[in-house]
Design a protein that fits this description.
Blueprint (H helix, E strand, L loop, with lengths): L16 E6 L3 E7 L2 E3 L2 E4 L5 E5 L2 E7 L1 H22 L5 H14 L7 E8 L5 E6 L5 E4 L1 E5 L2 H12 L18 H15 L11 H9 L8 E8 L2 E8 L4
Antiparallel strand pairs: 1-2, 1-10, 2-11, 3-4, 5-6, 6-7, 7-8, 8-9, 11-12
Helix pairs in contact: 3-4
Length: 242
């Protein structure tokens, strides 16, 4: 008889997709609200977007327990910074802190894939994209999560980010106006939901589960956070409920 060994992993992947787009005077960060594991939907109303400072927001996919631990750690470090410097941390400073925090845990990483968006010291939009161990890059737009392989080609086609190898270096911010960027985010998520079951789409297991749960009429939304000189505002768009 073949020996069987029990396998246990400290990680899970709770799916979901995040997108961020930076403009001349704004930043748009969006994520879906479904949290799942395998073919099971854990909740349809879970926000993946966390406000880290007045002008800095982080959206995260991956293992949501690690994401929550990371958010609490960053909040504590930001509080210490405010006591020491008597001001809020800027978005580029928070981007460096997030990179350092992820790299510090590189031998047992936070299983989270983050996009950080906000306004820099000049009021221009900025987006930073990360891997799980802290390698990051400042870009004009980015996507993370289970739907990112579907979303990024769409964004590349629409926005055509300048190559970082070109000299002189070109600004990474996108040429879209704020309403155009919000419309583009809604379009890419509507497209991704048709093909990615972890964002939202039809799958026989999901359909059976939704028939079992009366909460199907709630949730499964796209959450959009817009940062500009006026502050932060949120918008929601319903995604398909099956």
């Amino acid at each position: 008889m073949t020996k069987q060994q029990a396998n246990w992993s400290p990680y899970d992947n709770n799916g979901g997709s995040c997108v961020a787009i930076a403009g001349a005077d704004y930043c748009v960060i969006a994520a879906d609200t479904r949290m799942s594991t395998g073919y099971n939907i854990l909740t349809r109303d879970y926000s993946k977007i966390c406000k880290l400072a007045d002008k800095c927001v982080m959206a995260s996919s991956g293992f949501q327990a690690d994401v929550r631990a990371l958010q609490k750690h960053l909040a504590a470090r930001h509080l210490i910074y405010q006591h020491q410097h008597n001001k809020q941390m800027s978005c580029p400073a928070m981007a460096q802190l997030l990179s350092n925090t992820l790299y510090y845990k590189r031998f047992f990483p936070y299983y989270s894939f983050n996009v950080l968006g906000g306004l820099d010291n000049e009021g221009k939009g900025c987006v930073f994209t990360y891997d799980a161990v802290g390698s990051y890059e400042k870009v004009g737009y980015s996507s993370q999560g289970s739907g990112s392989t579907l979303i990024m080609p769409f964004l590349d086609n629409q926005l055509k980010s300048p190559s970082p190898l070109l000299l002189p270096a070109l600004d990474a911010v996108t040429p879209l106006s704020e309403p155009e960027a919000v419309d583009l985010v809604k379009t890419v998520f509507a497209s991704a939901t048709e093909r990615d079951i972890y964002t939202h789409t039809v799958h026989p297991f999901n359909t059976a589960l939704s028939n079992f749960s009366l909460d199907v009429l709630q949730g499964d939304k796209l959450e959009i956070v817009i940062l500009n000189a006026s502050g932060i505002r949120r918008e929601y768009m319903d995604l398909r409920k099956d």
